[in-house]
Amino acid sequence: MVGIDRPGVDGVSRVASASVTGRIPGRAGLWELDLEEDTVRGMRCVDPAAAETRGRWITPGLFDLQVNGIGGINLTDRSLTMAQASRADEMVRASGTSRWCPTVITSSFETARAALETLAGAMTAGRMPGAHAIHLEGPWLSDADGPRGIHRREYIRDPSVEEWDALQQAAGGRIGILTLAPERRGAAEVIRRAAGAGVVVSIGHTAATVDEIGAAVRAGARMSTHLFNGCAPLMGRHTNVIYSQLAEDALCACFIADGHHVPFPALRIGLRAKGPRRSILVSDLASLAGLADGEYEMEGNRVVLQDGGLRVKDSGLLSAAARTLAEDVQWLSRQPEPGLEQALLMATLNPAALMGNPFWADLSPGRRGPLAVFSWDGFQLRLERRIGF
To answer: In principle, which of 96, 179, 180, 243 could form an S-S bond with 225, CB 3.0–4.6 Å?
Structure first.
């Protein structure tokens, strides 16, 4: 099973020259790539008719748009150090994810500013080579139980352009995704401001009406954050915040396919409604991901980490996630649909395209890393090699 490598395990291939043969997501046939260190020097289709999914798959590595922490490191921490940020990057990459978005969640302005400054500093210094951009999830979310999830109510507030500008300045302009609840006062102005600067604005942790969802899209929102989660447990059967987002073709939708957050029948509906190109898999990893099962403190709650799930004790409320994106791809690929190839595309090409860089996922001669080679036996997805990351 693909998981989190333990300290001291590198896994990065730096051989002088080699070749690797396997399927490539989104391309027909079986391919052979000639590698020199981390560069693709040549490639050829050696069997155009190959269609077997079991076997080796060559990818650019996975692309995770939402990682809150890992291995005991909380990325929303006023005392976060660049060394911790660097270690988090190493652990995320060790799982087969070559690009990711460190995520800062709801907190005080002072804590958010400090965390953003540290992450931006580490990225600028080259200490987080896998970090693509920062994802700011909150503090401008719904304060209602259900939509709020485990985000701390005392820090939730209305958005303002002034606070947005201050946080983006603290991040050195590196915030690339902003999740907010569009029903909050001032949300439309912040959406326009952020979207106008090229930031992907996402709808999440919301109790918005159909009209409020539509207004957010018209203002520039382009994504739904972990759809089916961060919403009321009970809602109208015809008009609700899930259907409103599924029906908006302008919105790509992120899903947590870890076997805990969304039952497969609901996830199947979401994937079919959005289609293969507008569906994105994210891990939503929590700081406790990679630790031993047990009870922990997180965001002011006593939480239980067990069997790959993370829940608030005695409530059943989910508290972010503990399975890596590779493990999510594995879980989804075990289901009747959409199959491994589509699951891999939802975790590589689709997020890259949303972030404005679809060519990142293109495997072609001259490409210089990253590459992740996975093997699939119909049940387990194993990371065989990391090349160039």
So the answer is: 179
CA distance 27 to 341: 10
Q: Can you tell me whether residue 215 is helix, strand or coil?
A: helix
Element (H, E) at 56: strand 55-59
How many CA atoms within 13 Å lie on the side-chain side of 238? Answer: 0
Q: Could you give the CA distance from residue 383 to residue 278 in angstroms, rounded to a whole number? A: 26
pLDDT higher than threshold 50 for residue 73: yes
Tokens for 54, please give them.
């079991």
Residue 4 reports pLDDT greater than 50: no
Over 80: is that where the pLDDT of 360 sits?
A: yes
Segment holding 99, helix H or strand E: strand 97-105
Residue spans of alpha helices (H) in 98-149: 109-124
Tokens representing 21 are: 């043969």
Q: How confident is the model at residue 274 (pLDDT cuts 50, 70, 90)?
A: very high
Closest CA to 218 of 197, 238, 248, 246: 248
Of 64, 89, 284, 328, catalytic? 284
Please state whether the predicted TM-score (pTM) of the whole model is above 0.85. Answer: yes
Q: Would residue 284 show up in a list of annotated catalytic residues for this protein?
A: yes
Q: How many CB atoms lie within 10 A of CB 143?
A: 20
Spatial strand order in the sheet of 18-22: 18-22, 30-36, 39-47
Greater model confidence, 3 or 152: 152
pLDDT at 2: 42
> Which of 272, 264, 287 minimizes the C-alpha distance to 346?
272
Nearest alpha-carbon partner for 77 in 53, 38, 43, 103 = 103
68 touches 105 (CB < 8 A):
yes
